[in-house]
Amino acid sequence: MSSSVIAIDGPAASGKSTAAKNLAKELGIPYINTGSLYRAIAWKAIRLGIGFSDEEAVCAMLKNTTVRYASPEPGANPEIEIDGTFPGEELRKSEVAGGASSVAVLPGVRSWTMGIQRDAAKHSMIVMEGRDIGTAVFPDARYKFFLTASPRVRALRRLAQDGETPDGATVESVAAQIAERDLRDSQRATAPLRQAEDAILVDSSDMTAEEVLFFMLSKIRKSVSASIEYQVPFADTDQMGVVYYANYLVYFEMARAELMRSISFSYTQMEKTGFGLPVLEAVCRYHSPAHFEDKLVITATLTEIKGVRLRVDCTVKRGDTLLAEGYTWHACLNSKTGRPSRVPGEISDLFTMGEGKKS
Ligand code: DC
User: Which domains does the chain have, with CATH numbers?
Assistant: First the structure.
């Protein structure tokens, strides 16, 4: 159904939204908060005076409701739009959050929301966070994470969120409220909150948001690397009989070219497609010298993609001995306009989804 979905499920206040937002930003793709869909339904029900457990009335309301994920302004991440308006911050109120958990129990509501969530993931690779994304909405999601944290940590996080808790709330009262929601979310008959068998568990109790991001990236990003063997010719050595220091940057470049060929996107092909990857920064650390006729293995690994920039790390080894290591940062340029341009999908898709371009 959708191999382009990265699902993040987990209980209330476990840090799903932060993780989804950070991950989507790092990968340069949108993210969808599916909790906002249930919150929008509760928000409308409150305005119409409809009881959260009155399934007939809630479903009748949904027949006259249009909901979609859309960007409130060009380029912004998609948010929930209900009947032509973006309720935004209104959805953070605690009565709306409680109502969302109650309407989410209703089977009629869940079958209505299923189609909306699946539609939202039709067009591109996407991060989607919720309770049942990896179990019910996208059981074949490419990556599944189940994010959790101790009840106390979650209560503290919720308290720190503006507008999420009523005045005078304490860690104990918020923890009790969260526990009540956890119980309702995990004990409902339809699509209860639970960890999918193939989901990766992330207990973020003692982790910073950045650590959670790095952990998730380490599971998603496959190492894309290539190596070459090279026997040092006399011409590469200097008066001291060792490889001249500047040649290591040439060695890095040779391994990088092999890396590009290995992903079926050689420099020549890339230039034909209208892109160039000029070097912005080069760093090399020297550990031990190489000599004439040494047999070297030079490895290049794609380690980071950030918008229009990418980084390739390189090592130069003789047997098990590391002789030099370093990296280069490259800008991706449109060679016709000379302007920075997003890293081509041939490279970024491979990096983020761990699968090569089919040649
Ligand atoms: O993630 P959140 O706190 O905004 O979610 C609000 C409620 O919506 C949550 O208590 C349970 C429900 N929900 C759900 O049942 N399934 C989802 N995929 C997302 C949220």
Answer: 2-222 (3.40.50.300), 226-352 (3.10.129.10)
